[in-house]
């Protein structure tokens, strides 16, 4: 039935599990993906969308590292938007609206195309551990499946409990049972666990909505895509979303059910996502607001099912229905299913190494919501990193770790294992101190060469990146070396209401002005001729414009990163006894002992560890 022993066993086939299995198998490792239901591989449990602010950068990084989320998103997209285009490029974030059924289908097709990946449908109820090291998993039917490493990506299924009003029942997702046994075993092994909550809104019948009363939210005219590869293409047609609002009447109707809300009557004890609150939480926390946005998102190209973004709730069904019928455009709404909240087990991620391997059990990895994160993209990136590191560990190769100035993925993992989280963690651009370096437009340049070294991407992809780097630098040199004719340039500058020039100068200098865009300097024949002669595509031209306009900021961040990265080179010996250093604070000793940082830089980011504590540590390290 199974191989005698797998290199990697991945438990769970959501976004984290799918990326973990794909990464391990694409590296040539014999891999088994175990899930309770093979029909829900890559299921979008909540909103039918990928990317968004900071999350879009993560999807681009996954793609640059040879992951599949970008390709799957592109192939199932029904709308594309680049968010924050009015701000600087560090804030630009791609987002797709997706066909939920095609998304899951595409994930399965992508995974089934990998020869070294096997599949098995059953619940994993326990782990096989021998001498403190993982040896495989045990199925609910009692079957032992041996593996050299195991990646747990259980999502919301570990002892999942669904709440709708005063009703509650076990489940990992609507219509699916929860997973039991693993939490209890891990606690017995010495792991600390906790509970978190997330929620989802009602799904409704789009035929019952009056879209004429709502505002249209179309996709971009100038469409892009996630993947840097040619395995997907840009959309040529798109589906609109719509927007409407709640009202004081809607809020009053919702408040009528607060006494039966599991959030307010004590049934739900765990913490939900701060930045994606339920509608009842928004009404309670922001009582001064008389309305909240609701985005009406189609679930696919052909289905009439609609996702009501902004109306996540666990209130009783009758309260949900009555309140939603008072929303403009929803007067005749019909439900497909009500919203609900779900509580589930997670394990504080300070119990992990930077590779996402657990500190207690060797070759056991955690990825996704089991680590306290929320969101498809955060989960997928962890799965990718866990899959890569599981393979490298059993091959006795160096760990693959991304620093905070390498990728948003590096920020995410470092935040989790250094600071931990007591509420569902969501990525934002503000969490990244080097966000000017970590743009969505340069993820391939930052990460694809490293993916090539890992054996995940082929030489063809590396050549594409090398061409992009070379052609970008060549055009930058062209702009630095080529002069414009100043009378002709002044015609443009007058149009743009910016100061005239008094002599011929280089294109780079005038292009640096915030009022002047690439489309403006393409009016000049020598610039346009250069672009046409070198057959430069939009990705290269975008890269050129960003580097011209933000070169000062980029250089400053690089210098700051280089200074701080010197502390990354100062290693702390494994098993170092922080309790013996009496000259640092008691809190710092306790935090350092709990986290066990591997570098001085990581130690400096732990909450409660002060600069004076770091100075003492540097002395003890002989620096």
3D architecture notes:
The protein is of the alpha+beta class and 623 residues long. The protein is built from 21 helices and 20 strands. Strand 10 (161-164) and strand 11 form a beta hairpin. Helix 2 runs parallel beside helix 9. The longest helix has 23 residues, at 459-481. The protein is globular, with a radius of gyration of 26 Å.
Write a brief structural summary.
With 623 residues, the chain is α+β, with helices and mostly antiparallel strands. It contains 21 helices and 20 strands. Strands 1, 2, 6, 7, 8, 9 and 20 form a seven-stranded mixed β-sheet that branches. The protein has a six-stranded antiparallel β-sheet with strand order 14-15-16-17-13-18, with no helix packed on it. A four-stranded antiparallel β-sheet has the order 11-10-19-12, with no helix packed on it.
Main attributes of the structure:
six-stranded antiparallel beta sheet, seven-stranded mixed beta sheet, 17% strand, alpha+beta, 623 residues, globular
Topology:
Blueprint: E1 6-11, H1 15-26, E2 31-35, E3 49-51, H2 55-64, H3 69-75, E4 77-83, E5 93-98, H4 100-112, E6 117-121, E7 124-130, E8 133-139, E9 144-152, E10 161-164, E11 167-170, H5 182-188, E12 194-200, E13 203-205, E14 215-217, E15 241-245, H6 248-255, H7 279-285, E16 293-298, E17 305-309, H8 317-324, E18 335-337, E19 340-346, E20 364-366, H9 376-394, H10 408-419, H11 443-454, H12 459-481, H13 486-495, H14 507-511, H15 518-521, H16 525-533, H17 538-549, H18 551-568, H19 586-595, H20 600-604, H21 611-620
Parallel strand pairs: 1-2, 1-9, 2-6, 9-20
Antiparallel strand pairs: 3-5, 4-5, 7-8, 8-9, 10-11, 10-19, 12-19, 13-17, 13-18, 14-15, 15-16, 16-17
Helix pairs in contact: 1-9, 2-9, 2-11, 3-4, 6-8, 11-12, 12-17
